[in-house]
Amino acid sequence: MAEPSEASRVYLRFKDVFGDPNAKRVRARRRPRDETGSSVPFGAGRDPRGLGDTINSLTLQLGWNSPLAQSELLASWIELAGEETSKHSTPAGIEDGVLTVQCESTAWATQLRMMRVDIMTHIAVRYPEAGIESIRFQGPNAPSWKKGPRSIPGRGPRDTYG
């Protein structure tokens, strides 16, 4: 009798492992029957869970961890930046991983730019789910002739003054 080829041996092995799709399943999976009395409160697998654990698993499942961490970061700016610094700056918002902080003066914006590494370290340790990649410190809003961040160079509207 001739020995079967490698292809037929592979086929037979797959047939043993995965079963024959044309044959009836002999080994049907059976659910283990519950024993009488296993449905009692505090039985196996019925341990109560705390509300905090339930909320954490729900927020993880729904993908709310990042927005919740971002709002918590904005709410706890006083502890994050320090009491004196937070009197002169407020977080304006988070967009595309950039935390924007509005400062009372350009001097405070400059001071906070020098503290950027420390603040980013605190954010990375306390709020890793927030996804903050950088911080932008802005001074007070001053009137400008620019129409936006991508304005064209030149004198602008002043070139027609005579």
List the helices and strands and how they pair.
Layout: H1 6-18, H2 51-62, H3 65-75, H4 77-81, H5 83-87, E1 89-95, E2 98-103, H6 106-114, H7 116-126, E3 134-138
Parallel strand pairs: 2-3
Antiparallel strand pairs: 1-2
Question: How does this structure look, described?
Answer:
The chain has 162 residues and is of the alpha+beta class. 41% of the residues lie in helices and 11% in strands. It has a three-stranded mixed sheet with strand order 1-2-3. A hairpin with a 2-residue loop joins strand 1 and strand 2 (98-103). The protein is elongated. The chain starts with 5 loop residues before the first helix and ends in a 24-residue tail after the last strand.
Short synopsis of the structure:
41% of the residues lie in helices and 11% in strands. It has 162 residues and is of the alpha+beta class. It has a three-stranded mixed sheet with strand order 1-2-3.
Distance between the termini: 107 Å
Major sheet: arrangement of strands: 1-2-3
* Helix/strand/pairing category: alpha+beta
General shape: elongated
Supply the number of helical segments. 7
